[in-house]
Amino acid sequence: MSPNGEQLVTDREQAKPLGVGTKRTSxxxxxxxxxxxxxxxxxxxxxxxxxxxxxxxxxxxxxARIA
Length: 67
Prior knowledge:
This protein is mostly helical. It has a domain at 26-66: E3-binding domain (Dihydrolipoamide Transferase, Irregular), CATH 4.10.320.10. The protein has three helices and no strands. The protein has helices at 11-14, 27-42, 55-66.
């Protein structure tokens, strides 16, 4: 309790539940990410199986689709 009688809230109580504040991706962007990863793998461009795809890989993918 604080000096004025109010109960103090701990950091644990204030923490966001898991998953709150994380970016939610649409099924369209997930499908696009899968396509980019498959394209990158087929062209021997290193990209992780999970996580963010580097901007350079996105740019290469777009350029290849336009050409």
